Amino acid sequence: MLPARSSRTSSSSRSGSLHRSSQRSQPTRSSRSTTVKKTSRVRKRSTAQTDCDIRPTAVVAPKKKTTTTSSRRRSRSAAISTVEVRPSGTIFSRRSNAKREAIHHLPEHPPVDLTPPAWMQEECQVGPAQAGDQTEILQLLSGLPSPPSRAEFHASVDHPEHDSANRLVARLAGRIVGHIEIAPRTIMIGGAPVKAAALDRVAILPECRGAGHGQRLVQAAEQRMRELGVVAAFSRTRIASSFHDLGWSVLGRDCASPGRPADILSRLLATPERQGPEVTMRQWRHVELPAILRIYEQNAARFVGTTARTEAYARWLVSRKAFDSIIVALQGNDRYDLHETTAKIVGYCIQTGGRVLEVMADPEYRGLEREILARVCAEAIENDRQELIYESGPTDPLHEEVRGPTCDDQSAAITSRIAPQDRMIVARIFDPRGLLTAMAPTLASRVVQAGIRDTVELGFDSDTFRGSVTIPAAKDDEPREATVQPGRVGRSYLKLADDEFTRLVLGQCDPLEATTAGRLEPSTQLSQKLAEQLFPRLPLWCPMWDDVPA
User: Fold this and answer.
1) What is the CATH number of domain 256-420?
2) Measuring CA to CA, how many Å separate 53 from each of 48, 193, 344, 355, 418?
3) Do 176 and 133 form a contact (C-beta atoms < 8 A)?
4) CB 381 within 8 A of CB 393
């Protein structure tokens, strides 16, 4: 039995030594890793020991791994604290998660100075654009909500009143940082044509804003318009507050109402039909442009801000192709006729894409605009358009049909979403005396319509104009003419600021409301009544077709 005992002791000693050596050489990750891999030789020894008594051995807990760690565990236990970019490469600094604070307090940084660099604050040079500036100007104007195209530049050359000096740019360090465009045109103010201009395409580089470049551009444009003899200027802008700081008056909002064509059509068909002769609608022909101008002139006189379109100007609008389709409404037998002998055009609609720019109808056909808009909605449904944007004056009743019901007692299931209105109409008067002189026939006709036969005199006391408008008493059948007397205020006058004077003359001020708010101070009760009769409130509308990009 001695050989067997010796073999048992030797086997146990060998197994113990093997167990201890494995613990010393290889640190284990868990208790399972302590088991030794059984080879064929070990299996024979273990089978021989089954018949013998096996002595229990103590279980040793695995030691923690301290010397070597894998890269994966290092990435989990350490977080990136700083990143430094060097020419040789990017260096990441790591910090152990075990020593990381539970609450990480951000350092208090001083406020960042957002003032432009010194070279951007230098005074820019404003002057007319040159022929080689087209590419740089287009790149600058690409940030506008409605950027122009190259075709727009080529079309502006064919404008009846084109002048290359009316496009001004601001240069700084040899680079164009600002742009503004002057568009001379004749504006209708209560039926009176006035020589005016429109400021458009006002843009400043984003990195150069806040340095006064836009202010210098507007001031240079004002000086240019004074040289041209412009009486009043208008602009459609999204920065009305900046224009107001420069002395411009905010007239009102440029209204644009979006809606779904199916919802608009359902609301239009739910209203009673128009009483009158039936009309047919189709696409226009170029020979029908004079008829479209006739309908436009019949409606433009009752607005403030509409453009007096001549035939040459209207043909330029058509040639620049700033529209997709023009629908005309005809009453009578539809034949190819040059002089409207068999069919009379009584309405039209101009649209581009999903935007309805103009809807006009003959004043004798009341309610025809609704039928024309219904035809536009039907075509939009056929073309699978999901939205229409109706652009017109704020007082247009069709805006309610496009937007849908907004009252609590009406159904809200078909209510169209309302887009934010951020475009405003601003204006400034450069020659108050010239404006009142141009409006003299209109003022005299308003006095006659009011039934006033006595002499009328109304004075103005403001910073830019001090004078009066006088209309003599009626004598038999002689026509009454209004005259402007600068420097004479008279007994009945209005004391007001330049901003309120511009709004009053342009028909965007209610004298009674302005007096209650303290913006207008009438010297007598008669002066307030005369102001209400001579300058009634008129609807504001600047047609979008004149300014939409081609």
Assistant:
1) 3.40.630.30
2) 11, 123, 122, 98, 92
3) yes
4) no
Read off the tokens for 119.
């070279």
pLDDT tens digit string along 454-471? 999 999 999 999 999 999
Closest C-alpha to 387, from 351, 348, 422? 351
Q: Do domains 125-250 and 256-420 have the same CATH topology?
A: yes
What is the Cα–Cα distance from 243 to 21, expressed in whole angstroms?
Answer: 89
| DSSP secondary structure letters along 47-105 | HHTTTSPPPP-PPPPPPPP-S---HHHHHHHEEEEEEEEETTEEEEEEEESTT--SS-P
Predicted pLDDT of residue 424? 92
Regarding predicted confidence, which is higher, 35 or 399? 399
DSSP for residue 254:
-
Determine the residue type at 58.
Answer: A
Confidence of residue 40 (pLDDT cuts 50, 70, 90): low
Compute the distance between CA of residue 430 and CA of residue 230 in angstroms, rounded to an integer: 7
**Alpha carbons 90 and 36: distance in angstroms, whole number:** 45
- Mean pLDDT score, 435-458: 94
Residue type at 36? V
DSSP 127-145: EEPPGGGHHHHHHHHTTSS
Alpha helices per DSSP H over 171-235: 213-227
Contacts of 444 (CB under 8 A, 6+ apart): 471, 479, 480, 481, 482
CATH code reported for the domain at 431-534: 3.30.1050.10
Q: Report the alpha-carbon distance of residue 475 to residue 472 in Å, rounded.
A: 9
Q: Which of 135-149, 239-253, 481-495 has the lowest mean pLDDT?
A: 135-149
CA dihedral 213, 215, 216, 218 (to 10 degrees): 120
* Alpha carbon distances (Å) from 208 to 117, 172, 213: 9, 10, 8
Pairing of strands 304-307, 125-128: unpaired
Domain boundaries, the chain: 125-250, 256-420, 431-534
Nearest of 429, 426, 447, 425 to residue 438 by alpha carbon: 429
